[in-house]
Design brief:
The protein is an alpha+beta fold and about 180 residues long. The chain has a single domain (about 1-175), classed as Pnp Oxidase, Chain A. It contains six helices and ten strands. The strands form two sheets. Strands 1, 2, 3, 4, 5, 6, 9 and 10 form an eight-stranded antiparallel beta sheet that branches. Strands 7-8 form a two-stranded antiparallel sheet. The longest helix is centred in the N-terminal third of the chain and has 10 residues, at about 10-20. The radius of gyration is 15 Å and the shape is globular.
């Protein structure tokens, strides 16, 4: 059973799971969506509202979905989904049905077009209200050489969090070491 929670309730655990194995970002619509693994993201207040900021490269299949629907969901996997997260970050949705191949159940969100993944324990529904491209000449050389050797610069999507909900027993399904 999913319950409504504030965006801050699981923010620390969400960032911890991003560092541990990654999060699952979904964009599109039920029936035509893509899931990708993200390891970077920021949660916090901005402009007086809760935001989730995610980075997506234009070369990623998910990019066209976010551009098309203007929203996304961030789904926090439970402990035990590491193989799913790795797979979703390894293969492209252009060539694979990651939902089907990993037996992931998608269901409609409450406030955005992009669906959520039922098997995950925390969900953030986000509407894009601002985006910006990384400006290469403003980055230090060490970031350019390690994160952008192919000049494939991220677009940062500022997603206003419209809803956050979690499994009733989410605490037990997330890593508690942090």
């Amino acid at each position: 059973m999913k319950i409504k929670v504030s965006p801050e309730t699981y923010a620390k655990e969400t960032i911890h799971m991003a560092e541990y194995c990654g999060l699952l970002l979904v964009s599109g619509r039920v029936g035509r969506a893509n899931v990708m693994t993200i390891g970077w993201g920021l949660i916090g207040p901005l402009w007086g509202k809760p935001f989730f900021i995610v980075a997506v490269r234009p070369s990623r299949y998910t990019y066209k979905f976010i551009e098309g629907v203007g929203d996304f969901t961030v789904n926090v996997p439970r402990v035990g989904m590491e193989r799913v997260v790795t797979y979703c970050g390894t293969v492209s949705g252009r060539d694979h049905d990651k939902f089907g191949e990993m037996n992931l159940t998608i269901e409609p969100s409450k406030y955005v077009n992009s669906p959520i993944i039922s098997e995950c324990v925390v969900h953030y529904e986000c509407k894009v209200v601002y985006k910006t491209r990384v400006v290469p000449n403003l980055l230090p050389e060490e970031i350019l050489s390690t994160c952008y050797p192919a000049d494939d610069y991220h677009t940062l999507y500022f997603g206003e969090i419209l809803a956050t909900y979690a499994d009733k027993d989410a605490k037990e399904k997330l890593l508690s070491e942090y």
